[in-house]
Amino acid sequence: MPSPVMLTMRGVTRVHGHGAAEVHALRGVDLTVAMGELVAVMGPSGSGKSTLLHLAGGLDSPTSGSVRVGRDDVGALDAQGRARLRRRHVGYVFQDLNLVPALTALENVTLPLELDGVPARRARATGTAALAEVGLDDLADRFPDDMSGGQAQRVAIARALVGPRRLLLADEPTGALDSVTGEAVMRVLRARVDAGASGLLVTHDARHAAWADRIVFLRDGLVVDDTGAAGGPDQLLSEAARP
Ligand SMILES: Nc1ncnc2c1ncn2[C@@H]1O[C@H](COP(=O)(O)OP(=O)(O)OP(=O)(O)O)[C@@H](O)[C@H]1O
Q1: What is the Å distance from ligand 1's center to 105 Cα?
Q2: Which residue ranges make up each domain of the chain?
C-alpha cells in the first residue's frame, strides 16, 4: 500500500516582481512527497529550487496552484495558521543560519519549542537529544560566535529537527560542513525520514542526492525529470550535467 502523502503541490507557479522585472521562478510544478520519503531537488542556479522549498514550508504563497501539507491547504491558512504550521510541523535548514547570537546552542535549539509552549524542562530534554543527534551535546552552553561555521550549521540543523516535525526542508544543509560531518547530517535527515517524516532536500551534490529515494530535476521553473536514486552518484552527476 502506498504511504500517505505529506506534501502535495499542484500546478504551482510563482512570479517574483512586477512588470519588466517579473521573474517566473516556478511555471507549473506538480510534486508529492510521501511520509517516509526523502526527495532531492537538483537543478542549475536560478531554476527555482529555493522558491519551491519556501512554498513547501508556507514561507511564501504560490501565485497560482495549490500547496498542501498533510490536510492543511497552505494557501488557505491565514498568517497565524501558517506560522503555527511552520513552528509545529515543518523543520527548515537553510543556508542562512539565523542563530540568535545572544542565546546558547541549547537555547537556540529549544526556542521553537518554547515559542510553542512546551514546558522548559521538557524543551531542555528534547533540545539536548537533538544536539546529541548532530554530535554537539558537549557544546550545549556555547554561544554561536564561539563556534566554527560547521558547528553553528549543526546547531541550526538540530534546531530544524527538534521535536516531532513531519516535513523537513533542507537547502544545501551541508554547505559549511566538511565531508565527514556533512555525511553525518545526511544520516540524521535519513533517520528522521525513515522514522516517518517527509524530507525535501535541495542539493548540488550528487553524493547527498544519493541518500534520497527520488530525485527531481528542475530547469527554468519546471520539473524536467523525476527519477529514483537507484543509478547512484555517477548517473546523477551525468544527469545533472545534461544540457
Ligand atoms: N524575492 C525575489 N525577487 C525577485 N526575484 C527572485 C526572488 N527570489 C528568487 N528570484 C528569482 O527567481 C528565480 C529562481 O530563484 P531560486 O532562488 O528559487 O533558484 P535556485 O534554483 O534556488 O537558485 P540557486 O541554486 O542559485 O540558489 C531566479 O531567477 C531568481 O533570481
Answers
A1: 30
A2: 5-98+165-240
CA of 48 to the centre of ligand 1 (A): 6
CA of 172 to the centre of ligand 1 (A): 15
Cell 540543523 belongs to 157
- Residue ranges around ligand 1 (CB below 6 Å): 16-17, 23, 25, 43, 45-51
Read off the amino acid at residue 91.
Answer: G
Residue range 170-180: mean pLDDT, rounded: 74
Amino acid symbol at 223: V
Three-state DSSP at 18 gives coil
Write down the pTM of the prediction. Answer: 0.84
At residue 24, the pLDDT reads: 95
Q: Which fold has domain 5-98+165-240?
A: Rossmann fold (3.40.50)
Is ipTM strictly over 0.85? yes
Residue with cell 510544478: 29
CA distances from 114 to 79, 117, 163 (A): 20, 5, 11
Ligand 1 atom 26 nearest Cα: 45
